[in-house]
Write a structure and sequence with these properties.
Blueprint: H1 5-18, H2 24-34, H3 52-74, H4 78-81, H5 84-92, E1 102-110, E2 116-124, H6 134-144, H7 150-157, H8 170-182, H9 184-200, H10 202-207
Antiparallel strand pairs: 1-2
Length: 208
């Protein structure tokens, strides 16, 4: 699958800039430097093609806004707890930690005839900044100078939901449970990330 990287990038930047958040332009400059807009979303699963990371982030944002709008019809108080800009910031930037972990390589792939052939792919390395996943995104954004709210930081930190937990750590489990309880944005971003990968990008997964 080929991604229109220019179109995706323009839509991504328009949404991000619409928040008028302090530090956004510095973040954009760093995203460019980190290779965010040309990185894949994974090494061998959803959107594992150049530009896949930005596309996945955009899909997550669209899903998150849809969840937010839909849930407001069921719980009117949600609008007082979660602002649209909170949803945009947390969803668009939840996976910036992936910007520098995929390295192009050639891999063996069995074609339709059952013959092994060399195809472009990616290896994964964590040598640039082995800080974890969600926590790495939060730290990178703060270091870029982005002004973030507590719920945005926690939604990005815990966007993997239970899959991001160390079940040997009582503290991890309690922090995750407390973050969910305190901030609805945590649940919205986790749900949107799952919806993006599991539904919006499902066709691409099948093509892989």
């Amino acid at each position: 699958m080929d991604i229109d990287q220019k179109e995706v990038k323009e839509e991504f930047l328009t949404l991000l800039r619409s928040t008028e958040r302090e530090g956004v332009e510095d973040v954009i400059k760093d995203l460019e430097e980190w290779g965010f807009f040309i990185a894949p979303a994974s090494a061998g699963h959803h959107l594992n093609v150049p530009g896949g990371l930005a596309k996945h982030s955009l899909n997550t944002c669209k899903a998150a806004l849809a969840v937010w709008e839909g849930m407001k019809t069921l719980n009117a108080d949600l609008e007082n707890e979660v602002d649209r800009n909170n949803v945009i910031i947390a969803s668009l930037l939840h996976d910036v930690c992936k910007s520098d972990i995929y390295k192009p390589t050639m891999k063996k792939h069995k074609n339709a005839m059952g013959v092994w052939e060399d195809v472009p792919g990616y290896n994964v390395t964590y040598r640039n900044f082995p800080m974890g996943h969600g926590e790495k995104s939060v730290i990178q954004l703060l270091c870029s100078g982005l002004a973030m709210t507590d719920d945005e930081m926690l939604a990005i930190r815990w966007h993997m939901g239970p899959w991001g937990l160390n079940f040997n750590s009582y503290e991890d489990q309690r922090c995750y449970d407390t973050a969910q309880e305190m901030y609805p944005l945590v649940t919205i971003i986790h749900a949107a990330d799952s919806l993006a990968a599991g539904i919006m990008e499902r066709e691409n997964e099948a093509e892989d």
